[in-house]
Amino acid sequence: MKTKTLCLIGLVFFVASYVFFSQGSLSEQKHIDLAHWLNLIGAVLLYSFNNVFPKNKLNSIATIITTLGVIAHIGLCTIDFIMWSFGNDDIGRNQLSEKISDTASILYPFIIIGPSFLFIGLAMHALNFIKTNLVSSLMVIIGGPFVGISYFIWNNGTLMLVSCIIFAGGLALLLFRNEMK
Prior knowledge:
The protein is mostly helical. It has one domain. It contains nine helices and no strands. α3 packs antiparallel against α6 (about 115-125) and α7 (about 135-155) runs antiparallel to α8.
């Protein structure tokens, strides 16, 4: 399968996961935590963006940061799968949540900081095109942070989904920039 195809499939899965996230309570998903499966698969496939953009110093740094973000997403989704598995056991889920919150070596790399690296790394890749593809680059650079801001600060699922669509749309435009000319 072509690398660009993997990138595109990753974007579709990633955005689809945010459709679920924007709906609110994920505990309603009875048989499978579809939101996190889509997010996990999407994030892993977004790693392919490291191989489609031009090679330079900025790209090398962006590749490392994107890779760390993918790893963090894997960890975050694993934690969320475990949380989801508690079902209606709110006491057990809260105890695990407290334990994770008290464990900095899990909390920061896999929940607070690490997942942001995926957005930061892909935004750094987009910086390579700021002069030639201004709009699509800005879609990635601005859309990424707004995914986190809209969710963690404003607690707005709709804005989070729109931000993710803008972010992914910018990446898709950059991915097919040569075909569009």
